[in-house]
Structure formats: C-alpha cells, structure tokens
Specification:
With about 375 residues, this protein is of the alpha/beta class. It contains twelve helices and 18 strands.
C-alpha cells in the first residue's frame, strides 16, 4: 500500500543485494518509517517476538523468509530452524502454516538446492497472501456498498479493532481490505479505530495506514465501541483474526470478544475477515483449545509515546508495585459472528459452511 506516496509490501527481498530481507519496524510507527534489514534467522525470530513484524499473515511470510536466510547459510539446519521460528508466537496459526509449507517444499530436496528453493517458496507465500487479501477486499466490498445504498450516500461507519491492514499482511490487509477497496471504488467510508490497548495497534498502526491511504477515520478509546453502537453510529464491525477454528470460533486481539457482545446486543453486523492460512481445522472449541499468548506485564503498566518536544519516551501509568496481567488475545464464539469474509467468498461462521468452502482442508476431528 502507499507510504509517502510510494507503493510497498510489508516484507520484501532487498533489491540492493538480492538476498537480505526488509521489513517495516512496526515498533517505530507512527513516529518514524524505518525499514529493517534482516540477514539471518535469529534476527527474523527477534523481529517476530518483539513485534517489529506483527499480524498473523505477515508473521508467516516473514518466518518463511527467515527459513530462506537460514538455508543460504546452513541448508542442513532446516528442521532446527523451522522448529525455532515456529515457537516465536503461539496464537497465530499462519506461522505454523507457513513453516509447514516451507518444510514441505524443502525437506525432500538436496541441501545444495534448498536456498534457491526456499527463496522461491517464500516469495510464493508472499504472493499468495497478497492475492488472497485483495480477494478478501473484493468479497467484502459489497457489504459496504449495500450499507451505502441504504444510507443514500452518507458515509458507512465501520468499527475495527487492532490492526488488520496491510501492515499485518504482505499487502492490502484482511479487515481493512474491503475498506480500501470500497474507498478506492468511490464508496464513502469512515472508520472508527479502536486504540487497542495495551500496545495501541489501532491508534498507532491502523490510524497511520488509513491516513496514508486517505481514508476518513477517528481514533476512539477501546471502551467507546458499545456507546457508539447504542447511538447508531456504527453500521458494521469488521475485524481480522489470528486463528479460526473449524466450527467458526475466532481468536483475535484482546477486546474483540467484548466488541462482538456489544454488536450482538445492538444488532450490528459483526464480520471477520480471514485468509485460508488462518483456518485451523484441528481445533473445534476455540475457548478451550487455542493457546493464548501472555505477553509482558510492562505492556500494560507502561506506555510509549511522543512528548511535546518530539522525544519518544516510555512512562509508567500504573501504580508502583501493582502487578499486571496481559493476555494478548481472546476468543469470540461463532454464535456472535455474523459471517466470515474469505478470499473465496462470504460464508456463515459454521462448521458446515467452512467445510464446504474449503473441502481440501476438511478432515475428521482428531
């Protein structure tokens, strides 16, 4: 998408040397646009753990390039490298999907051939994600067009949570893809952007990329969503996801479940946008079976921002000595989900609909 007027992907091979990997350092946004150069798998692992690269599809693509970097140095280390990268973030299933795809492409070829094959497979994963997200935008756009028609040209008010735009994917995004597609197609759209505590991905990332693309938006406190829905100021909720079960339960950034409850109580459609790589057909009960990452308490007790004189500072906002808990995700049961926006079309969040849409993934419950 556009950054300072230039079209970019969130991860790419460095054009200068043809082998190192460039990613946007998302921990520096929105204050600075800095491209990191990654040269080995340990740097890739650090980038994923530290959330320099974040967003389920982007994590998978970045890890795939981490495998390629490792194969350039030591093609015999395939299994160990993949195991290490797979442990960097536990909740997003896209990471495991990408690692498994890399293993499938490289395991049975001679070590000497693994490096070029790894770069080719990582590029294919990135291209697949781009095409998938673009298709999600096309299939989600009619939802916004229908609302715009009912409102006779008044802006469609979309509420989203966390960041599920192009920064979270290779390009286009998941939840934001229909918004970008509608905006570019002339549909008037306004986005309510949840700040998304504790890391503020909405205020820092979603707002930044929407602004860079020229999409009207307003940042709101996480707890404002229910109020806005009660007063008819939200036409539709669209969120992304880090994992969707075969039964339609949805794991996403902490606070998503509360938005789904508020949407249900106010008859506001609640849609989830996902690529095929986010489906986990092995899991039936999302609440019981999806591992929820517990991140550092400092993300809750401390806040980083820009001071009036331009310095980037981290300050403590919690009482001294008070402990903090930081579950990074929650699970929204399928019963609260209006439907799923996939690259193949829109479907109900049911086991039967998911199995019919993705027959190649449908397997008996283990």
């Amino acid at each position: 998408m556009r950054v300072e007027g230039i079209w970019h992907r969130s991860v790419r091979v460095d054009e200068a040397d043809g082998w190192s990997v460039r990613i946007l350092d998302q921990t520096r946004l929105p204050w600075a646009v800095e491209w990191l150069r990654l040269t080995d798998e340990t740097q890739v692992a650090h980038a994923i753990r530290s959330m320099q690269a974040r967003g389920a599809p982007l994590i998978g693509a970045t890890a795939a390039y981490g495998v390629a970097l490792a194969m350039r140095r030591d093609p015999a280390a395939l299994e160990n490298v993949c195991a290490m990268l797979a442990q960097t973030r536990p909740t997003a299933i896209n990471l495991r999907w990408a690692i498994d795809r890399m293993l499938g492409a490289l395991r049975n070829i001679p070590p000497a051939a693994r490096a070029p094959a790894a770069y080719a497979e990582a590029a294919a994963i990135a291209d697949d994600d781009t095409a998938t997200c673009e298709a999600i935008g096309r299939h989600g756009m009619p939802l916004l067009e229908e609302i715009a028609a009912r409102k006779r040209g008044a802006p469609v008010n979309v509420l989203t949570h966390c960041n599920a735009g192009w920064l979270a994917t290779v390009d286009w995004g998941t939840a934001l893809a229909p918004i970008y597609t509608a905006h570019d197609g002339g549909v008037p759209v306004h986005v309510w952007v949840d700040e998304t505590r504790p890391r503020n991905q909405g205020a820092a990332l979603t707002a930044w990329e929407l602004g860079a693309h020229g999409v009207a938006h307003t940042v709101v406190a996480d707890n404002a969503g229910g109020h806005l829905m009660q007063h008819g100021q939200v036409d539709i909720v669209i969120v992304g996801t880090d994992r969707v079960t075969r039964t339609g339960d949805v794991a996403n950034k902490i606070g998503t479940y509360l938005k789904a409850l508020a949407a249900h109580d106010n008859a506001v459609p609640f849609w989830v946008a996902l690529p095929h790589s986010t489906l986990d057909m092995r899991v039936g009960d999302g609440v019981a079976e999806i591992p929820i990452e517990e991140r550092s308490p400092a993300e809750v007790t401390d806040v980083t921002g820009r001071t009036a004189d331009g310095r980037i500072e981290t300050i403590r906002v919690a009482a001294a000595g008070s402990p903090a808990a930081n579950p990074a995700f929650d699970v929204t049961p399928a019963r609260l989900v209006t439907g799923l926006i996939t690259e193949r079309g829109r479907i109900p969040a049911t086991e039967a609909a998911i199995a019919a849409m993705y027959p190649e993934k449908a397997t008996p419950a283990s």
